Amino acid sequence: MGFDPTELRIIRLMYQETDSADIAAELNISARSLMRYRTAIMEKAGVKTHTGLVFWAVKEGVVR
Prior knowledge:
This protein is mainly α. The protein is built from 4 helices and no strands. The radius of gyration is 11 Å and the shape is globular.
């Protein structure tokens, strides 16, 4: 269940409550690409919602 650096950055930005437009702008990707990244991240983490992903990230020590 390895995450690439971009996926980890997205997780951290989501944890910081950064909105989608700002995440996409910071990473210089389209909103559609961000959606694909989020879908892949949630599948890897085994969660169904963005909130679930944040809880998972805290539990697994991905974010603090």
